[in-house]
Amino acid sequence: MSTSGTYSSYPSSAPSRPILVSIIAILVGLYGFLVFLLGLLYIVGSSLFGSFGGVTFFGTSGIEAGAIIFIVGLIILGIAVGLWHQRLWALVVALLFLLLEMVLYGIAHAFLTWQFIVSLLLFVYLIAVSRHFD
């Protein structure tokens, strides 16, 4: 091949994304999208049907509760994008969330639930692949 071509025999310096990190990012993204849609539906439903018959959510009206759920969904989507692009801040937020989840499940259910075990496995895995994040 001529030297004027764009072919390079050197490996790219971009860090590779472990397949399980990709799967986690996609699943977190799907979850975030569903939470986002739930918040949007709650806002629209509350607007159209008057706060679902006057029912409140943690002491707030349906529109306010929907807005909170909507924002949480956007935050989760942001974390998923950060994980996909292997951003360190997204890894830290995900690890903090998993740690909080493990503590809450551990206290509530004596550390013997499948939620605790899955959270623990994800926590250990994300720490193991943390060198791929920048």
Please tell me about this protein's structure.
This protein folds into 2 domains: 18-85; 88-134. The relative contact order is 0.13. It has helices spanning 19-54, 62-84, 88-109, 114-128. By secondary structure, it is mostly helical. The mean pLDDT is 81. The longest helix has 36 residues, at 19-54.
Summarize the structure.
The protein is built from four helices and no strands.
What's the assembly state of these chains?
single chain
| SSE succession | HHHH
Q: Ends: how far apart? A: 35 Å
How many domain units? 2
| Mean pLDDT reading | 81
Mind sketching the topology for me?
Elements: H1 19-54, H2 62-84, H3 88-109, H4 114-128
Helix pairs in contact: 1-2, 2-3, 3-4
Keywords:
2 domains, 134 residues, globular, mainly alpha, 4 helices, single chain
